[in-house]
Amino acid sequence: MQPRRKATLTLEDGSCFHGYTFGYDEEATTGEVVFNTAMNGYNESLSDPSYAHQIMVMTYPHVGNYGVPPRDKDSNGLSKFLESDHIHMHAIVVSDYSYAYSHWNAVQSLDSWLKEEKVMGLTGIDTRALTKVLRERGSMKGVIVPEGVKEVPAFKDYNKINIVAEKSPKEVLTYGNGKKKVVLVDCGAKLNIVRNLITPDTTLIRVPWDYDFTKIDYDGLFISNGPGDPTMCHETIHHLREAFNIGKPIAGTCLGNQLMALASGAKIFKLKYGHRSHNQPVRRVGTNSCFITSQNHSFCVDSSTLSDEWNELYVNLNDGTNEGLIHKEKPFFSVQFHPEACGGPTDTLFIFDEFIRSIK
Hints:
By secondary structure, the chain is an alpha/beta fold.
């Protein structure tokens, strides 16, 4: 039996949940407390930059049983099994952490990985009761304090931080040598987006969030996912407006959907508790085609504010919110969900094919 240290998660409304730490527990940690209803995929979620500054609550009760994969790199220098090179969320909260793990591709436990990266885990609480609080009252800031830790950090307003600027790369990276030149605006991209855009037909140029990509002679433009409030990305929105005038094919996912909406003049709003799961159903507008999607976002496009030049492309079948946009005349479209879905279903991988085919 592993030695266990007591800890308490306190939400900004005063709600308290008592459990035990695993992973790193030498100091208290704060973050926006959100919940994820996926049954697996904790490695991909932990390494997803979109979870920056968040404390993720897993509603599936048993977590850690398949361990953590190796840090192997592919021929492009990208991690083979994770969505970035390190953990981005501030903590993970689970009902029952499994110290024993077994998987053909595992090289260490979740506990040891969290210790290496100085990220806290909390177990032994009723995560479904916690999730019920978050569903009823909305996502809230929270702090986890291990027993004996005296210094407790103050809550931050994460909506006032440009988290994209923190998680976007600082330099331009190029992959492949295909005839179609694609620019990926990396606002905190999951690596599986990069993997899916590297094809025999493409040269992929991966640029920072604020890079003026309009100065590049590109053939197609792709706007990635990312963390935080998209209205903070003033430079990206400005460059996107210029790209709309250029008229070459543009696609976006998740945050990219919101940024394209903002660049078009539409508005966004923050969802009460967001969409974080691998089972979000969406429907393509004007059809009966439905797909199960992986999602991770707090903000959403207000479809009622779209201009006459744009239509909704997909809608969420749970709550009716926007899941994508398409321009009526120009080759621009975006989706709110993750077609690259690491982890999650691969129903919508065709989105990348649609984008590549749109490039002449």
